[in-house]
Design a protein that fits this description.
Order of helices and strands: HHEHEHEEEEEEEHHHEEHEH
Radius of gyration: 21 Å
Low-confidence stretches: none
Number of strands: 12
Helix content: 25-40%
Shape: globular
Largest sheet: 7 strands, mixed
Distance between the termini: 30 Å
Mean pLDDT: 97
Structural class: alpha/beta
């Protein structure tokens, strides 16, 4: 979901952005009007997230999936080694993509695949490679509904995190990371924009043969304007950040609201005689809540009746089955309350 206030503002500005006589979709990315939009978006992201001056903010394209290759191409330039924690499909894909470039240098130090990624595995720093160029995690796992409760201590090795499905949902201490990256389409805006927040000292010459467009240095030196950026998606991201700052009151307030929303569903699941959450309590996500009835036919019936009642996209991923409620920032509290009421009524009837 996008905040309704953001959609209303975008609709009002669709034909004429601030008296320019044109839509943001139509203006040149080299115009002064658009430069103010992209600069404003970057400044707002720094303000809302508390990003230190020692980090660069890049607006890219290609989704998190392109970052699976860009990260090793740009960061694995010394030892050519990187450690990975495998906590779901996206972590697996990041590891596999790095393996194509780094070979045995890409190493999985822990995995929760043994129990269908229903928990975050315990990590032992003694098993980490102290000479690795980076250590990679997926902070929140969209499909499986898990989130790292504690960040791994990687010492001097830069911690890199895919934060696509949890960015802006709560405060993040950016200084704990060498780099954060996120597809914007969960909490920041429409699909098409990828945000990279990278420590400036990590931006250097990439591995030999790296394409120009896959070099962080290229984009940092050109203010994310080496090629035409995803202009409209950046504009919507700017509006979302204004909404977070001015209407929500910042990320601490957003976290409190998200905890309240998630608590409604988790409390119901923990007391339900029919529905059961699939994630261990210590690893639960605030954004993605998977659950099952334990009966595939009943799960299918629930998804069908829920859709008829206006609750869409509740079917779980095929690797997990069951259902999944994704309650990103813009989902109002009322929506979560109504879902819990519907689940309660379905339990009584079944």
């Amino acid at each position: 979901m996008l905040p309704e206030a953001v959609l209303a503002r975008a609709a009002a500005e669709m034909l004429d952005y601030e008296g320019s006589g044109q839509s943001v979709m139509e203006m040149s990315h080299r115009s002064g009007s658009y430069q103010a939009i992209i600069d404003g978006c970057a400044a707002l992201l720094r303000e809302v997230m508390g990003i230190p001056d020692s980090y660069e903010v890049l607006f890219l394209q290609g989704g998190a999936s392109t970052q699976f290759a860009m990260v090793p191409l740009n960061l694995a330039v010394k030892s050519g080694a990187a450690d990975f924690v495998i906590t779901g499909q996206w972590a697996k894909k990041a590891y596999a993509e790095a393996g194509k470039l780094l070979g045995e240098g890409a190493r999985a130090v822990a995995s929760s695949a043994d129990r269908t990624f229903s928990y975050i595995p315990a990590l032992n720093r003694e098993g980490f490679n102290p000479d690795a160029d980076y250590f990679h995690i997926c902070l929140n796992n969209t499909i499986y509904g898990t989130k790292f409760p504690i960040l791994p201590d990687t010492g001097s090795v830069p911690l890199v995190a895919d934060v696509s499905s949890c960015i802006l949902s709560e405060p993040i201490d950016v200084s704990r990371f060498g780099m954060l990256y996120a597809g914007a389409q969960k909490n920041m805006g429409p699909a098409g924009l990828t945000v990279v927040i990278i420590r400036k000292d990590l931006i250097g010459d990439p591995r030999l043969g790296t394409p120009t467009m896959l070099s962080y240095k290229t984009h940092a030196e050109n203010g994310s304007m080496y090629n035409t950026p995803p202009c409209y998606a950046i504009y919507i991201c700017k509006l979302v950040l204004e909404w977070l700052r001015d209407e929500i009151g910042g990320l601490e307030k957003m976290k409190a609201l998200n905890e309240r929303k998630a608590g409604i569903l988790y409390n119901f699941l923990d007391s339900s005689a029919l529905f059961k959450g699939t994630v261990e309590k210590g690893s639960r996500s605030l954004m993605n809540i998977p659950f099952v009835t334990g009966n595939e036919e009943l799960d299918a019936k629930f998804v069908k009746e829920a859709a008829a009642a206006g609750f869409i996209n509740l079917k779980g991923h095929r690797s997990v089955g069951g259902m999944r409620a994704s309650i990103y920032n813009a989902m109002p509290l009322e929506g979560v309350e109504k879902l819990a009421d519907f689940m309660r009524a379905f339990e009584t009837a079944n």
